[in-house]
C-alpha cells in the first residue's frame, strides 16, 4: 500500500513535469504571434500576379500574367491567384480583400511595423479590383483564366500558357454576389486608406458605390451567368442576398450615406436568426454581417440594430461549448471543424469573428446572451486563442499548419509555384505536363511559401503532409486574410 502510494506519487510528479514542460514549450509569446503576423502577410507576395515590384520579398517568384485582359482590350494585370493554381477568381479575391481590410480596421493599431505590409497586401488587390470594376460601364470583370484548362496543368505562374479567358458580369448576365462582395472590398479598403492616402480612399469609395448599385439593380447569381467557369470552384451556393446586405453594410460604414442605412433597414429582415450554420466564408457572408452590424448597436446604441446584437449572440453562442445553443463541431484536439476540404478557412474566419465580437462587446461592457446564461468577451478571446494556438502548433500532431512557423510544418504544399523549381533557379520553361513530376514527387517543395496556412487536419486531428491531398495541403488567400487580424490581436497581448 505504502509502496503503491509512493509509486503513484512519483508518477504524479513525473506527470506534472511532463505536462508542464510540454505546456510551456507550446505556450506562445507575443513575439511568436508577431513573427507569425509578419509571415502571414508575407504569404500574399507568393500569390501575386502581374509585374512584381522591386521590394518583392518572396524572391523565388517572378512576373506573370502580364497580358491578362489584353485580348479583350482591357487591362486586368495584377491581383492574386486564389490558392495553389493560377486562376484569378474574383469572388474569393474580393472576400480576401474585405477580410484583410477588416483585420486592419479592427486590429491595425496592434500591427506595429507590419501595418505598411498589410496595406500593401490590400492595395495589391484593390488596384486590380478597381480596374475590374471601372474599365467598362455596367460591367464587372470577375475572373481571368479558364479553371478547367488551368487545373489540367501543373505549371508555375511564370510559365503558364493555358487560356487566359476573361469572364465578366453585365446587365444581361448579372452577378450580384461577386459584384456586392467587390463593393464590400472596395468600401472596406477605403476605410483603411482614409488617412494614409485620402485620394485613393475616395477613388475606392466611389467605385464601391458604383459597383454596389450595379449589383443591386441587375440581380442574379454569377453562378447562373457563368456556370462551369465558376462552378464547382467558387459556385455561389448561398446566393446573392447575403452579399447585398454585406456590401450595403460596408458602404454604410465607409460612406455614412443614409442610402445604405435605409437599404439595410428595408432588406435586413431577410436575414432571420434561425439560419445560423456557423460558416463564415467566401460564399456565406451572414455571420460576418451580423457581427459587423451589431457594432452599431453596441457602440452607438442605434435601436434599429438591436436585432443584429441578438443575431450575433445566437451565432456566437452556437460556437461556445456548454451553452444551450451550442451546435458547432470540434475535433478531439479542440479544433473548430466544419468541412473536410480546407477546414482551416472556417477556423480562421470564425476566430476573427470571435475576437471582433469580443472587442465590440468589451467596449460596451456587454456579454453575449446564450439562452439563460451569458458568455463574456474574455471567454470568446480564450476560445479564439485555442484556435490560433492549435494552428501554430499546440495540437495533437505537434505541428504548425503555417508554413515556415515553428520546427515542424507542411513540406508538401499543394501549390504549383512553390512545388516546381523557381524560374530563377531553372529558367528553362517547364511545360504543362512536365510539371506533374513535381506534384507527384515525395521531395519537399523547393520554394518555401512562407506564411501560408494550409487546409489543415481532418476531424480526428490527423494531417497527411501530401501534395496530392489538396483538401489538407492547399493554401488559400482567404485562409490567411482573417488570421492576419487575429495574430495582430494576440501579438499585442502578453
Ligand atoms: C448617397 O448615395 C447615393 C446612392 O449611391 C448617391 O446618389 C448620393 O449622391 C450619395 N450622397 C452623398 C452625399 O454622397
TrEMBL record:
Q: Where is the signal peptide?
A: 1-27
Q: What reaction does this enzyme carry out catalytically? A: Endohydrolysis of (1->4)-beta-D-glucosidic linkages in cellulose, lichenin and cereal beta-D-glucans
**Has UniProt tagged this entry with the keyword Signal?**
yes
Q: Which residues participate directly in catalysis?
A: 414, 465, 474
User: Which key words tag this protein in UniProt?
Assistant: Carbohydrate metabolism, Cellulose degradation, Glycosidase, Hydrolase, Polysaccharide degradation, Signal
- Short name of one Pfam family for this protein? Glyco_hydro_9
InterPro entries reported for this sequence: 6-hairpin_glycosidase_sf, 6hp_glycosidase-like_sf, Glyco_hydro_9, Glyco_hydro_9_Asp/Glu_AS, Glyco_hydro_9_His_AS
Domain Glycoside hydrolase family: from-to ranges? 33-487
Q: Superkingdom of the source?
A: Eukaryota
Family listed: Belongs to the glycosyl hydrolase 9 (cellulase E) family.
Q: What is this protein called?
A: Endoglucanase
Per the UniProt record, the source organism is: Populus trichocarpa (Western balsam poplar)
Amino acid at each position: 500500500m505504502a509502496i503503491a502510494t509512493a509509486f503513484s506519487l512519483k508518477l504524479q510528479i513525473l506527470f506534472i513535469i511532463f505536462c508542464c514542460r510540454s505546456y510551456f514549450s507550446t505556450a506562445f509569446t507575443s513575439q511568436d504571434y508577431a513573427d507569425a503576423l509578419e509571415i502571414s502577410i508575407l504569404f500574399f507576395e507568393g500569390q501575386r500576379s502581374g509585374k512584381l515590384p522591386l521590394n518583392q520579398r518572396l524572391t523565388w517568384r517572378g512576373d506573370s500574367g502580364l497580358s491578362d485582359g489584353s485580348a479583350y482590350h482591357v487591362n486586368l494585370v495584377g491581383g492574386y491567384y486564389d490558392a495553389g493554381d493560377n486562376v484569378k477568381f474574383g469572388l474569393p479575391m474580393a472576400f480576401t480583400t474585405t477580410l484583410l481590410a477588416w483585420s486592419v480596421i479592427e486590429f491595425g493599431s496592434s500591427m506595429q511595423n507590419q501595418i505598411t505590409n498589410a496595406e500593401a497586401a490590400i492595395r495589391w488587390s484593390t488596384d486590380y479590383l478597381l480596374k475590374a470594376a471601372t474599365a467598362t460601364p455596367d460591367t464587372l470583370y470577375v475572373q481571368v483564366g479558364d479553371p478547367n484548362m488551368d487545373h489540367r496543368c501543373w505549371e508555375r505562374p511564370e510559365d503558364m500558357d493555358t487560356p487566359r479567358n476573361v469572364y465578366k458580369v453585365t446587365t444581361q448576365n448579372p452577378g450580384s454576389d461577386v459584384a456586392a462582395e467587390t463593393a464590400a472590398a472596395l468600401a472596406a479598403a477605403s476605410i483603411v486608406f482614409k488617412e494614409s492616402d485620402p485620394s485613393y480612399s475616395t477613388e475606392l469609395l466611389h467605385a464601391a458605390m458604383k459597383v454596389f448599385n450595379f449589383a443591386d439593380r441587375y440581380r442574379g447569381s454569377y453562378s447562373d451567368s457563368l456556370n462551369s467557369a465558376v462552378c464547382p470552384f467558387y459556385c455561389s451556393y448561398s446566393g446573392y442576398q447575403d452579399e447585398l446586405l454585406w456590401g450595403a453594410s460596408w458602404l454604410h460604414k465607409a460612406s455614412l450615406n443614409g442610402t445604405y442605412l435605409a437599404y439595410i433597414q428595408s432588406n435586413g429582415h431577410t436575414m432571420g436568426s434561425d439560419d445560423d450554420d456557423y460558416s463564415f466564408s467566401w460564399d456565406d457572408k451572414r455571420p460576418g454581417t451580423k457581427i459587423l452590424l451589431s457594432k452599431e448597436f453596441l457602440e452607438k446604441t442605434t435601436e434599429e440594430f438591436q436585432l443584429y446584437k441578438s443575431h450575433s449572440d445566437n451565432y456566437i453562442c452556437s460556437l461556445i461549448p456548454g451553452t444551450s445553443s451550442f451546435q458547432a463541431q470540434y475535433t478531439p484536439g479542440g479544433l473548430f471543424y466544419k468541412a473536410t476540404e480546407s477546414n482551416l478557412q472556417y477556423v480562421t474566419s470564425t476566430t476573427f469573428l470571435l475576437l471582433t465580437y469580443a472587442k465590440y462587446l468589451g467596449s460596451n461592457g456587454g456579454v453575449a446572451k446564450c439562452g439563460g446564461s451569458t458568455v463574456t468577451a474574455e471567454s470568446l478571446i480564450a476560445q479564439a486563442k485555442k484556435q490560433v494556438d492549435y494552428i501554430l502548433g499546440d495540437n495533437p500532431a505537434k505541428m504548425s499548419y503555417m508554413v515556415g512557423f515553428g520546427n515542424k510544418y507542411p513540406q508538401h504544399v499543394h501549390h504549383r509555384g512553390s512545388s516546381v523549381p523557381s524560374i530563377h533557379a531553372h529558367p528553362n520553361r517547364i511545360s504543362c505536363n512536365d510539371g506533374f513530376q513535381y506534384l507527384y514527387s515525395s521531395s519537399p517543395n523547393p520554394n518555401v511559401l512562407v506564411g501560408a496556412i494550409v487546409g489543415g487536419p481532418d476531424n480526428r486531428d490527423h494531417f497527411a503532409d501530401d501534395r496530392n491531398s489538396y483538401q489538407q495541403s492547399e493554401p488559400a488567400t482567404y485562409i490567411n486574410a482573417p488570421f492576419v487580424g487575429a495574430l495582430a490581436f494576440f501579438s499585442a497581448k502578453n
